[in-house]
Design a protein that fits this description.
mainly beta, Porin, 3% helix
């Protein structure tokens, strides 16, 4: 693949990951194993609201082809088949969820040094079609996204965004929800290895005249431990500690509570991921 501006989905992703990834209020345990034949098997158990659920995922890689299958405790099956460079500088992704036979989806991605393009269509009689396009460089990128419902003959979404990437910082602005919301974010890396960072994000919804401002960050205490925290203007505070117990095996303890309603019970999450 060429090194271009990236996909439209990448715009704003760095800030989103810092503010949402690994924050959870469930008890989660996962074990992953790998074989020399390119097969990865991951078993996950999640306790949420007093209920226990889980899934088993198998990932198989062979040359430029990846096959991913996931089965959950309710016998739902999700399968994804990915072909890289089936045509030069392209990626093709086919997915389906069973027993919902109408959930099939086919996506085509094209990468160029100064542009990327994706189109995705549902595999049913009245498919919904999503199209994205991004132009620019790895430093600055402009992109747009549109969704079209062939049944109603109307657009389901249209979004536009811009991102600027520098060695020690990243900024993005996204106009979404059919022009009803705008989200601006900024990430500043605090070290050369980019293990510690500060992030700020502001979202405005024009229809409700509502603003949400969130600040947060990630700090590497040492090479094994990371601390993350976030706080928004509505008083929602979240924090987590992530520690590598043994190589590639990570323990994550997270919590979230409302600083404006301290009488409410905070939410706690625990996740353990074991990898060979």
């Amino acid at each position: 693949m060429s090194k271009g501006p990236g996909l439209f989905a990448d715009i704003g992703k760095k800030a989103k990951d810092l503010l949402t990834r690994d924050y959870n209020s469930d008890q989660k345990f996962s074990v992953s194993t790998y074989s020399d034949a390119g097969v990865a098997l991951t078993s996950t158990a999640v306790k949420k609201g007093g209920l226990l659920a889980g899934d088993v995922a198998t990932l198989y890689k062979y040359k430029n082809t990846t096959f991913d299958v996931k089965v959950d405790t309710e016998s739902n099956i999700s399968a994804t088949l990915t072909f890289t460079d089936l045509l030069p500088s392209t990626k093709t992704v086919a997915s389906i969820k069973l027993p919902d036979h109408n959930s099939g989806k086919l996506e085509f991605q094209y990468f160029h040094d100064h542009a990327t393009f994706t189109t995705a269509a549902a595999l049913n009689q009245s498919p919904a079609i999503d199209v994205t396009a991004t132009i620019g460089t790895p430093t600055i990128a402009f992109g747009a996204e549109a969704g079209y419902d062939t049944t109603s003959g109307s657009f389901t979404k249209y979004t536009a965004g811009i991102s600027v990437t520098k060695p020690d910082s990243y900024a993005s602005i996204i106009l979404g929800d059919k022009g009803d919301s705008i989200r601006a974010s900024y990430v500043h890396h605090l070290d050369l290895l980019k293990k510690s960072a500060a992030v700020g994000e502001i979202t405005r919804r024009f229809s409700s005249n509502e603003n949400t401002f969130t600040v947060g960050g990630s700090f590497a205490v040492d090479h094994l431990t990371v601390v993350k925290a976030k706080l928004n203007n509505h008083g929602k505070l979240g924090a987590l500690v992530q520690h590598e117990v043994i190589p590639k095996s990570v323990l994550t303890i997270s919590s979230e509570f409302d600083t404006k309603a301290l009488d409410k019970n905070p939410r706690f999450g625990l996740a353990i991921a074991l990898k060979p």
